[in-house]
TrEMBL record:
<dbReference type="InterPro" id="IPR051453">
    <property type="entry name" value="MBL_Glyoxalase_II"/>
</dbReference>
<dbReference type="Pfam" id="PF00753">
    <property type="entry name" value="Lactamase_B"/>
</dbReference>
<keyword id="KW-0479">Metal-binding</keyword>
<feature type="domain" description="Metallo-beta-lactamase">
    <location>
        <begin position="12"/>
        <end position="192"/>
    </location>
</feature>
<dbReference type="InterPro" id="IPR001279">
    <property type="entry name" value="Metallo-B-lactamas"/>
</dbReference>
<dbReference type="InterPro" id="IPR036866">
    <property type="entry name" value="RibonucZ/Hydroxyglut_hydro"/>
</dbReference>
<dbReference type="GO" id="GO:0016787">
    <property type="term" value="F:hydrolase activity"/>
</dbReference>
<keyword id="KW-0378">Hydrolase</keyword>
<protein>
    <recommendedName>
        <fullName>Metallo-beta-lactamase domain-containing protein</fullName>
    </recommendedName>
</protein>
<keyword id="KW-0862">Zinc</keyword>
<dbReference type="GO" id="GO:0046872">
    <property type="term" value="F:metal ion binding"/>
</dbReference>
Amino acid sequence: MEWKQMPVGPVQANAGLLWNEKNEALLIDPGAEGGRIKRKIEKLELKPIAILLTHAHFDHIGAVDLMRETYKIPVYIHQYEEKWLSDASLNGSKLFPVVENVEGKPADHLIDREGEMTIGSFTFEVLETPGHSPGSVSFYFKEAAIVFSGDALFAGSIGRTDLPGGNQKQLLDSIHNRLLELPEQTIVASGHGPVTTIEQEMVGNPFLNGFSL
């Protein structure tokens, strides 16, 4: 299993691709620059089969409809953010004058629980990691030893909690009880910035130091 991230859009959110030996691919958080993402998919000769969304803030969903229509694939999002894809006030695009309002189509499938999920030949674990937003989830691929954490956990930082539905205590609980329970060598592919590992964040993340266990 292979993977790649590419920063897209005005706030450089990471769009993710993860694919198998058959070149079937999952597209994670296509936030903007759909044409550029499409060119990368074509260059790698991938066949996308689904779009996974860690959450529905505008910088992670801006190219969803283009990717869905181009490849005729379904979109998955947590049920708590079911309405966010089509509501610029909820997804935050209305709050930022530097971006156009993002108002897309509803998701095809709603995630209503954490645990194992299978899409095509991919089997992975959905971890509910709210706090940055109510329906934030992380996708853990054990075989590839990687978790796509969205905006829950970053290299040396954590997600902001000052947007609607944000809750810092809930976010810290999510990180501690879900993400930090993963094997220490697990790669953390965050929604912004460079990759890190669970071990690096356990040891050196100043936002997690001193969090009561």
